[in-house]
Amino acid sequence: MLAIAALVAIAAVAAPGISPAAATRTASPTPSIHWRNCAGGFQCGTISVPVDWSQPGGPQLSLAVARHPADIPSQRLGSLVINYGGPGDPGAESLRQGVSDVPAVIRQRFDLVSFDPRGTGLSRPIACVDAATYDRALAQDPTPDTVQDLVSFYAGTNEPVDLVQACINRQGQWLAQVGTRNTARDLDHLRVALGDSKLTFLGYSYGTALGAVYAQMYPNRIRAMVLDGAVNLSSTEESELHDNAAGFEQALDAFLAACAVHTSCAFHHDGDPNSALLALQQRFEAGLTVPVPDGRRAGATLFYLALAGGLYDRANGWPLLAHALDDAEHGSGGGLAELADPLTGRQTDGQYNNLQEALSAIRCDDRHDPLVSFDEYVATYEQYSQQFPIFGAFLASSPLGCDPRLPASPASEQIGNLRVTAAPPILIVGTTGDPATPYAGALDLQGRIRGSRLLTLVSTEHAGYGKGIPCVDTNVDRYLVAGALPAAGTRCKP
Question: Chain-centre distance of CA 205, in angstroms?
C-alpha cells in the first residue's frame, strides 16, 4: 500500500538496544571519488561501498555524490556533508536545489557535499512502480468513509497497485540493506574519500537520526555536527502519530490565526479563514478536483499534502499556502501541486524520485514494528478523525507498523536505544512548534547525546537553520566554523 501519511509523519521511532561496537564492520579499501563538473558550479561523482558491510570485499554499489566547492578556497576548512532527511531524500539533487539557502560564510569556508543514501536517488534506488501509477494513487480518495473502505485501506487494496509486493518483487533482500546503520557506514566511507580526518555534518529531520547513529558508531571521527529538526528516538509509532497530528493541527491553527488578522493574506475571508478551510475540505472530501497546469487534477490527497507542505516554512510557506487555497477555491490546483509535489517526490518532468518507496523500507529497517491488528487500526482511525478535524483522518488512514512481507534487518542493525557518550559537543536545533518533528524530539536527543547543546527556535515550522533567521544562522555558523557553542538556554525568534 502507498503510505501517503508517512510523507508528512516523518519522525523516527526507537527500537531494542544494541551494542555500537557490534554494528561497526571491517573497513573496505581506501575509497576515492572521481569528480566531474556538472551544472551550476557543482561537481558530481560516485563512491563505491559494499552492499553488505559485513562483507566489504563482496558486491559493491555506487552512491551518487554532489559537491559545491568552497567559494573562497584559501579559507577552506574542509567539507560540510549535508543530509536532508526523509528518510529517502536524494541529497545530491537537494543540495543543487538548496545551496543558496546555506549562509554565505559557510559556502565560503566549506565544500558543501551531499549524497543519495543507499536505496534513494541514483544510489541503487528502491524503484517499484512507474510515475503513472503514482499519479493514479495520489488521485485516490485518501480517507476511508465506510467499513468496507477501512478494510481496503488496511489491506492496501484501495490503491491501484500493491506497492509492498511490487517492491519485494523488484528489490528482494536489497530492502533489508538500506537502514541507517549501513548509511552511517557509507557516510564514514565518504568522509575518508573527501580527505577529511574528521566529519563536519549537518542533518535535517531524519538526517538527525543518521547523525546520531554516526556519533554512536564513530564518536572520535567528528569535528562538528548540527542536528536540526530532531526526530524523537523515544517515540512509539502511536505517540509519533499523535505528535504529528497535534503538531500539524497546531501549526495550521497558527497559520489561520495570522491569516485572520492580516487582510493581505490571500485566504483572509473577512477574518474567518477557518470556516472557509473547513468548507473547502468538505468539498474535496466530496470529490472536488481542480485542474493543474501540467494536466493533472488536484483532489483531496494533494489538498492535505499541500497543507502540510505549506506549514513546513513560515516565512515562505504560509503565503504560498494562502494563495494555493484561494486558487483552489477558484478552480485552480497549481498552487496545491507546487506545495505537495516535494513531499511526494514528484519532479517537474512528471517523474518521481522514489522518496516514498525508499521511506517505508528505511524506516522498517530501522525499526521493524509489527503491523497493528485491524481492530486497533479502526479504533485509531476513529479517534483521530474526531480529535484532529483536518489532519487526523488523513494521517491515520494507513495502519501503523511494518508489512510482515517486508524483509527485516537483524535487531543488531536497527537504531535501538541509542546513546552517545564520547563524542565532541554536538549542536541540536529544535523548533518549539515544529509540526513534523515536534520539539520533544530535540529535548529527547539532547538527553541521549552527552555534552550536546540545544539551540531553541520559538516558531512554528520544520527545522530552523538556513531560513534567514539571524539568531539561528549566526549561532550555527559560529559553531560550524569555530566550534563555539551558543550559550546554554539560547532561544531565538524569527
Answer: 5
Q: Count the Cβ atoms, other than its own, within 10 Å of residue 39.
A: 7
User: For residue 425, is the peptide bond before it cis, meaning its omega torsion is within 30 degrees of 0?
Assistant: no
206-246 per-position pLDDT tens digit: 999 999 999 999 999 999 999 999 999 999 999 999 999 99
Q: Please, what sign has the CA dihedral across residues 255, 256, 261, 266?
A: positive
Question: DSSP 3-state assignment of 276?
Answer: helix
* Grid cell for residue 169: 518483487
Active site residues: 205, 434, 462
What is the H or E stretch that residue 334 is in?
A: helix 334-344
- Are the beta carbons of 92 and 44 closer than 8 angstroms? yes
Nearest in space to 440 (alpha carbons), one of 228, 226, 231, 210:
231
Scored b (16 or more CB within 10 A) or e, 2-19 reads bbbbbbbbbbbbbbeebe
Q: Hey, what's the cell of 51?
A: 552492499
pLDDT in tens, 402-439: 999 999 889 999 999 999 999 999 999 999 999 999 99
Residues 6 or more apart in contact with residue 171 via CB below 8 angstroms: 126, 128, 361
**Could you tell me the pTM of the whole model?**
0.90
Q: Of 234, 190, 184, nearest to 211 (Cα)?
A: 184
Element at 49 (helix H, strand E): strand 42-50
* Burial degree of 222 (CB within 10 A; 0-12, 13-18, 19+): buried
